[in-house]
Write a structure and sequence with these properties.
THDP-binding, about 525 residues, Rossmann fold, thiamine pyrophosphate, 3 domains
């Protein structure tokens, strides 16, 4: 048994049975080991950003880490942005990065790079295997790290000779590191704060879906506080019957208005709300200066235990949380706009769908319209590095093959990782992609105004639009093996979407909108 075979067996023993991969020469022994273990599902991505983003989507929907297989420092560098997004969302994954044989490094071969330097900035755990006998233990440690602290990025660098040299037995799985918990006096202080006037319980992580969201809703119902969350959370349960959680907006001044009456904010599974960027004469944080922030339970602490303790302290276990009622709009027709597309999605969204939202300037109209649709999960991009939507949809669809995945993305964002369309086609994933083709990075027009620049000249305009030539998403989809249609009005969109969510496999809808259309200014 060589080191690569030992590592694959160790990953499988630790419950890691999906590998999103873009391998190269240094990983061939690992590829051979994967080939001899059919219980590991191997999924090829044509770009490393698609690989790492898919692993993120898989974690969000299962709470289980997938492995990635990446080629040397340039390969990890190509996947960096979506590892960053995963880390900002406290996602877990095990990155296996091939390296040159250790004795070959001194020759400075063309693909030699500083893997540790590239990976360190987005890895919570990082190790280079020293020899084949260490690989199994390193792999078990990597899986443990990925599962710890509510999800971490674990990166294991595997020199080629440690993969092909003889190894010993695979390592047994290790339990995650125990999560830290608040003290009883902190629980009591938080309970007192939530009972006060102007209180808000600001939650994140696992408190945004499933049983923990229900527990948070009970605390809010019992104490009378507001139940709130950030906008760009990794996963939020929404729609009919979901706990009513009030979400923030993108603009910091809008959030300042939302929070103006908050006097006490208790943080559970979330950090203090912060503006996405700094702007001249605008605050970095939207909470009022007089607001008392109580950081009860950070995102890497024991969220489940904390909510249970807080519910017991507030006598909330028998309370009934406020939930969203089903409220479907009529199907719109006529001219196509972001608001109308949102209304159509709300009316037609299948039960138990998964919506990945990176439609940027169209995102808020979609979010507002679908809040009271049929029950669904809503995945955002907590790291802000665009190009996440299509890979996230791949990972979510692999994780939940019985659920329809909807990926809503801007055309500029989708160009970062459009290779993920090919993976959707190869794996026959039930993903409906909606590309909002407003022919540019419209968010940048607003950001230019936010920093005080209101005149757009030729150079700025050419950096904002993706026209001349115009992107053809029907052709791009077909070139990746995905059927597609173009929607110029609401009737054609409704027909295309209604058909897409009923058919197996991936389908893309290009929504044609001028940059001046409502919701896209």
């Amino acid at each position: 048994m060589n080191g690569a075979e030992c590592l694959v067996k160790t990953l499988l023993a630790g419950g890691v049975d999906v590998c999103f991969a873009n391998p190269g020469t240094s990983e061939m022994h690992f590829v051979a080991a994967l080939d001899s273990h059919p219980q590991m599902r191997c999924i090829l991505g044509l770009f490393e950003g698609g690989v790492t983003g898919a692993a993120d989507g898989y974690w969000r929907m299962t709470g289980q880490p997938a492995a990635t297989l990446l080629h040397l420092a340039p390969g990890f560098g190509n996947g960096y942005a979506n590892v960053h997004n995963a880390r900002k969302g406290f996602g877990g994954m095990v990155n296996v990065v091939g390296e040159h044989a250790d004795y070959h490094l001194k020759y400075d071969a063309p693909l030699k790079g500083d893997i540790e330097g590239v990976a360190r900035g987005v890895s919570d755990w990082l190790r280079v295997s020293s020899d084949a006998r260490a690989v199994a233990g390193d792999g078990a440690d990597a899986v443990r790290a990925a599962r710890s602290a509510n999800g971490q990025i674990a990166t294991l660098v595997l020199p080629a000779n440690t993969a092909w040299d003889a190894a010993e037995a695979p390592a047994d799985p290790l339990p995650p590191v125990r999560l830290h918990r608040p003290r009883p006096d902190q629980i009591r202080a938080a309970a007192d704060a939530l009972r006060a006037e102007g209180a808000a319980l600001f939650v994140g992580g696992a408190a945004l879906h499933g049983d923990l969201a229900v527990l948070a809703g009970k605390i809010a119902a019992r104490t009378g506080c507001r139940l709130m969350a950030d906008l760009f959370v990794p996963r939020l349960q929404r729609g009919a019957g979901a706990v009513a959680i009030e979400c923030m907006y993108y603009a910091v001044l809008e959030n300042a208005e939302i929070l103006k009456d908050v006097r006490h904010m208790v943080l559970v599974g979330a950090g203090e709300p912060v503006a996405f960027f700094a702007y001249p004469d605008k605050p970095s944080t939207p909470t009022p200066p007089s607001c008392h922030l109580l950081d009860l339970c950070g995102p890497r602490m024991d969220i489940a235990w904390t909510l249970q303790a807080l519910a017991e302290e507030t006598d909330a276990l028998d309370s009934t949380p406020a939930v969203l009622a089903l409220d479907l709009p009529a199907l719109p027709s006529g001219t196509i706009t972001a608001q109308k597309v949102g209304a159509a999605l709300a009316a037609l969204l299948p039960e138990n769908a998964i919506v990945v939202n990176e439609s940027v300037t169209a995102g808020q109209p979609l979010s507002d319209a679908t809040r009271t649709a049929r029950r669904h999960d809503w995945l955002n991009n907590p790291g802000g590095a665009i190009g996440a939507a299509l890979p996230l949809a791949v990972g979510a669809a692999v994780a939940c093959p019985d659920r329809r995945v909807i990926a809503a993305t801007g055309d500029g964002s989708a160009m970062y990782t459009l290779q993920s369309l090919w993976t959707m086609a190869r794996e026959r994933l039930d993903v409906t992609v909606i590309v909002f083709a407003n022919r540019g990075y419209q968010i940048l027009r607003g950001e230019l105004a936010n920093v005080g620049v209101h005149s757009v000249g030729r150079n700025a305009e050419r950096m904002f639009n993706v026209e001349d030539p115009q992107l053809d998403w029907v052709a791009l989809a077909a070139g990746h093996g995905v059927a597609a249609e173009r929607a110029h009005d609401m009737d054609s969109f409704v027909a295309a979407f209604s058909g897409a969510v009923e058919r197996p496999g991936p389908f893309l809808i290009e929504v044609c909108l001028p940059s001046s259309a409502p919701g896209f200014a």
